[in-house]
Specification:
395 residues, alpha/beta, Aspartate Aminotransferase, domain 2, 7-stranded mixed sheet, 3-stranded antiparallel sheet, 36% helix, globular, binds pyridoxal-5'-phosphate
Length: 395
Amino acid sequence: MYRLGQKEVDEVSKVIKAKKMFRVGDPKNGHLQEANRFEKEWAQTIGVKHALLLSGGGTAGLMAGLAGMGIGPGDEVIVPGYTFMATAAAVLMVGAIPVLAEINETLTLDPRDVEKKIGPHTKAIIPVHICGIPSNMKAIMAVARRHKIKVIEDCCQADGGSFRGKRLGSWGHAGAYSFNDFKIMSAGEGGALVTNDDKICEMAGIYSDSGAAFRPYVKKFTVPIFLGFQFRTTEITGAILRMQLQRLPGILADLRRIRARFIAELKGKPGIRFAPSNDPKGDCGVVVSFQFESEAVARIFAKSKGVGGWLPIDSGKHVYSNWDPILKHRIGHHPGMNPYSMPQNKRLRLKYTKTMCPRTLDILKRTVYVSLHPDWTADRIRARIEACRQAGASL
Ligand SMILES: Cc1ncc(COP(=O)(O)O)c(C=O)c1O
């Protein structure tokens, strides 16, 4: 969360005063339609037909998207070795098996490694726009088309980002967003699924609303109702996010302006090399990414006075080698519901090792992020850039 204030307080207080917090209700009875309105506004922002706002976060968005694509036991889904564990967890929660692929220097999924990892049971790819950095969606969609498989974008860390002028989440067959407290837009918790595909939306809607029992349009569904999860959102979340959406253009403009300044002022300076970008304009500007020839040099730079840098290799459950429950096949509350023991998954690629994506680990060790904030003052920006310049020069 970057900006939060009176707008959110006012909108939430309207919901509380109306005493209509359940997301389904009749406007004629004073229901404010906050969740419905956010879904419409979010779909319009992303440039897609449908958005589903969900409790259960981006994880629920990914699960609902995968379920909407009919993915389950017997299927493999390719995920990068560098993403929050939730990306791979969502695959397991629908009964499928995550297969790990390498990232490249952009910190995002390497389309060439994806193509190498596609096997006879691969049904989908999940590119992850980590730290607001856009994946190469053109190359990933080309791979997906060649192999007739689906793409669900994990946009959880990239609310509002884009690639080649088109919003993230609208390139793939579906996209998942997170609005938890650490994201660009926040309601404390929350997530969304976006898609242009009516069938994915319908299946995901049923899956995420305990059989969609409360939805007034349930009769319009073309598939029979099945039981799913209870990921219904609240009017309060909808109200907060509608106000967060109003702030989004300003947040992104400020983050991008600061990132562009770092790059303009430090480009070509001794010791400084930026990570390559698939699309500098579409990047959300959450971080500036520097790359070095070794971990030792990266650590010296990150720790230099005033730089405030950090290495993605240190980001815990964002690195596949730290995904213990997955590496050790500890999934679900009951052995019969563990995808690794399901008979349909027997022939799939179930084995992981801590070193199976060596290029990913190497890149994460040689990269330094400096996290940016849209409300940094001009003095603070200047000081941070100068600290980076001095740190680079002294390497
Ligand atoms: C890349 C990525 N994917 C998925 C998630 C899951 O989102 P949530 O915590 O909202 O379920 C996160 C959240 O941190 C994330 O960063």
